[in-house]
Amino acid sequence: MGKKTESSDDRELFESYGRLINPSYPSFLAKLGLGNVAARAQGATITDSQGRTFIDCIGGYGLFNVGHNNPEIVQALTDQLREQQLFTKPFITEVQVRAAECIEEIAPGALTCSFILNSGSEAIDCAIKLVRLHRGGKTIITAQRSFFGHTFGALSASGIPSFNRSFRPLLPGFINVPFGDAEALERSITEETAAVMIEPVQHEAGVVVPPDGYLQEVRNLCDRHNLILILDEIKTGIGKTGRMFACEHFGIVPDILVLGKSLGGGLVPIGAVVAKESLWKRFGMSFPMSASSYAGNVLACRAALSTIRFITGSGVMEECARKGELLLGAFRQCVGEYPDILRSADGLGLLIGIETQGGKVTLELAQEMIKQGVLTVPAYGNSSVLMVEPPLVISVEQIRTVVDSFTAACAKVDHTGRK
Ligand SMILES: Cc1ncc(COP(=O)(O)O)c(C=O)c1O
Questions:
Q1: How many other β-carbons are positioned within 10 Å of the β-carbon of residue 33?
Q2: How close is the Cα of 59 to the center of ligand 1, in Å?
Q3: I need a labelling partner for 15 at 20 to 30 A (CA). Which of 164, 207, 233, 337 fits?
Q4: Pairing mode, strands 139-143 and 193-198
């Protein structure tokens, strides 16, 4: 697979992709103005087959906190392959134990036990099963507009009807209440409630930072009613919000923490469940909890280990807060300047959403920015929100380019709308 020099080669690839893999995806990309395949990626940039380089503010929807092809993670994985210690079952491997020790070190509170799986969705299903192991078939309360993944358990728990409507009947045992409303949550708790599962910051329906005191109140309610609190930090974890986990901003610790995405260094598929020891006792006694064939494989564990070392040792997490403030401050200024097309901007660290006056405006802004070499995309679950979530390694200079690009896109779209 050498470097493509002809875009006609890409057309052939797009046609085959549409025919063999996903018929609707090429037209989605074409709508955004992305007509070429990716050639290489490094840090916060992706270069396509025609040599066009983009600043990546999509960040693989949360995979690339450490940047694309982070040299330290690539080296660690290469070493792992060279060492040829790729066996797992029935053996225990050192790297799996070291990854668990490392997760124990960074996990908040007394979350000491963990298990690495193959995706965030699988880890969510594992957390749901952990609740069922302890509380039987009782209900799990989740939030409206939440998104937990694509497997049946995760999809059934999710609160975006347009995502799960086509797959009914869903698994029973979940109810959704409004996010950010602790009173609504309290009203929905009954004798039949086992757990509460939420994201600390919602994102798929636009970036929704909870109101002050909400997460603390959720923790209090769980304590008072003896409910298990599960936090899905698949997106918000591993430094994305300027802390290792978003729950640290709110001073709370869940009973089960679910991780994924960037934990694999943007290179290896991964999910992880982290829990209190008291909830873990039954874990090993149940074959379907840990039997997934590739679960705990050494490449995923090595990726997690080196990713955590990079995040804790490189300073990117500390810089993330400042970079996020730069972006959010500039976006909010644009909201003030372009009220006809923008409504608000919100976020935490480098997870930011800009709410526009509608899906048409969001798409036009994304198209304009892509023309200028900055990748952004509307939220899947809310076309009125433009998502901006670059890798943590984005430079301040690149942030300035993103801001200039967004400002220029606003001027253009605002002007077009007035014509
Ligand atoms: C908050 C959240 N939970 C769960 C998932 C599912 O993770 P995965 O795609 O690795 O299965 C996602 C993925 O987008 C997510 O953002």
A1: 12
A2: 14
A3: 164
A4: parallel
Write the CATH number for 273. Answer: 3.40.640.10
Domain boundary among 298, 313, 328: 313
- Residue 398 and residue 258 in one domain: no
- Residue 418 above 80 pLDDT? no
The DSSP-derived string for 161-192 is HHHHGGGPSPPSSEEEE-TT-HHHHHHH--TT
Q: Name the closest-CA residue to atom 6, ligand 1.
A: 149
Q: Are residues 52 and 91 in the same domain?
A: no
Residues within a 6 A CB radius of ligand 1: 61-62, 119-121, 124, 147-150, 199, 232, 234-235, 260-261, 271
Neighbours of 13 (CB within 10 A): 15
pLDDT in tens, 36-45: 999 999 999 9
Residue with the two structure tokens 């074959």:
287
Question: How far is Cα 213 from Cα 228, in angstroms, rounded to an integer?
Answer: 19
Alpha-helical runs (H) found in 107-255? 120-135, 152-157, 161-164, 182-188, 214-224, 247-250
- Dist CA 141 CA 235 (whole Å): 20
Instruction: Quote the CA–CA distance of 263 and 100 in Å, as a whole number.
Output: 12
**414 CA to middle of ligand 1, Å?**
34
Tens-place pLDDT, residues 71-129: 999 999 999 999 877 777 788 899 999 999 999 999 999 999 999 999 999 999 999 99
Number of domains in the chain: 2
Q: Report the pLDDT value the prediction gives residue 284, as an integer from 0 to 100.
A: 76
Domain that holds residue 65: 7-23+33-69+315-418
